Amino acid sequence: MSAVLPSVVYQLGVGGIGGFIVGYAMKKISKLIVVLIGLFITFLLYLGTRGIISINYAELWKALEGLLSFAGQAATWLIGFISLLPFMGSFIAGFVLGFKLG
């Protein structure tokens, strides 16, 4: 029992710290991506109002819905897989904390 405890504590500590770092970085990157997407859509709308391009809004919203549903399915599978492992459980806890504080 005493030989197992340091190994579990090590796995939880490394997983938690690693998860925190990754979560913090992911939140910062996701904010940048959201800003860039917003600027891109604003630029497209500007070009559309000037008559430079023609935007098919129905197809644009279909494409965005498809992308978001795929991301939701991938996240569901990933969360189910990660929750099975103790190391990854602490990684998720650190990730969530880093994401929240990022």
Lay out the secondary structure.
Elements (H helix, E strand, L loop, with lengths): L3 H46 L7 H26 L3 H16 L1
Portion of residues in beta strands equals: under 5%
Shape: elongated
pLDDT < 50 stretches = none
Main sheet specs: none
Overall strand count: 0
**Rg, Å, rounded:** 20 Å
- Percent range for helical residues? over 70%
Secondary-structure element string: HHH
- Average pLDDT level: 77
Structural class designation: mainly alpha
- Alpha plus pi helix count: 3
Distance, first to last CA:
37 Å
What report would you give on this structure?
This protein has 102 residues and is an all-alpha fold. The chain has helices spanning 4-49, 57-82, 86-101. It is elongated and about 70 Å long. The model has no long low-confidence stretch (mean pLDDT 77).
Provide a quick synopsis of the model.
With 102 residues, the chain is mainly α. It has helices spanning 4-49, 57-82, 86-101.
Descriptive terms for the model:
102 residues; 3 helices; mainly alpha
